[in-house]
Amino acid sequence: MKGEVSVCKIFQFDTSHQLIGHNGKCANVHGHTYKLEVVIKGVPHNFEDTSNEGFVMDFSDLKKIVNDLIVDKFDHSFIASGNEPVLKTLIETGSKVCIIGCRTTAENLCMYICYKLMKANIPVWSIKLWETQTSWAEVHAADLNDNQPEYLNFGDCDYE
User: Fold this and answer.
1) What is the longest distance spanned by two Cα atoms in the chain?
2) What is the C-alpha to C-alpha distance for residues 135 and 35, in angstroms, rounded to an integer?
3) pLDDT tens readout for residues 65-104
4) d(Cα 159, Cα 72) in Å, to the nearest integer?
5) 47: pLDDT confidence band, cut at 50, 70 and 90?
6) Are 114 and 41 in contact (CB under 8 A)?
7) Of 65, 94, 84, 92, which Cα lies nearest the Cα of 155?
């Protein structure tokens, strides 16, 4: 659409996970320092005498929403599908756990984050999640189902 502008806010969080049944070293409990790029797109507000004039969305508003919905829940937690053997022990010992109800691959996490932000009425264009300095997954909001991602069968972050 003419007049639209894309803006991006970058976040970082540390988390651990385990890919049960994976044929590789990621079957072990391990962690990453993720870099999350949230790209939103829209026509900048054009109101006279308002603090929002010229913004698609104020970066500080975007930061608050992404931190509340994603970063604060994921940071220094064990993100889980719900079938990990270590999960029971982590919960019993009071560790921070975030059950999202799907296999915690970079691809699924990317879709999960995009979906959560779309449900919060953020004008998401795309989500890019860097798992390492050389590996990332990306999803465009237009490529997700309107209702919910297909992988989301149960769960959500249970750490409040």
Assistant:
1) 59
2) 10
3) 999 999 999 999 999 999 999 999 999 999 999 999 889 9
4) 9
5) confident
6) no
7) 84
Spatial distance between the Cα atoms of 107 and 131, rounded to a whole number of angstroms: 10
Annotated catalytic residues are 26, 76, 131
Alpha-carbon span 108 to 65, nearest angstrom: 20
Kind plus residue range of the DSSP H or E element containing 77: strand 77-80
Q: Using CA atoms, how far apart are residues 120 and 108, in angstroms rounded to an integer?
A: 18
Task: For residue 10, give the H/E element and its range.
Answer: strand 5-17
Report which of 104, 106, 127 is spatially closest to residue 6, judged by C-alpha positions. 127
Rounded to whole angstroms, the Cα distance separating 158 from 47 reads 40
The Cα–Cα gap between 64 and 142 comes to: 23
Task: Render 62-87 in DSSP notation, one character per residue.
Answer: HHHHHIIIIIHHHTTEEEE-S--THH
CB 65 within 8 A of CB 113: no
pTM of the model: 0.89
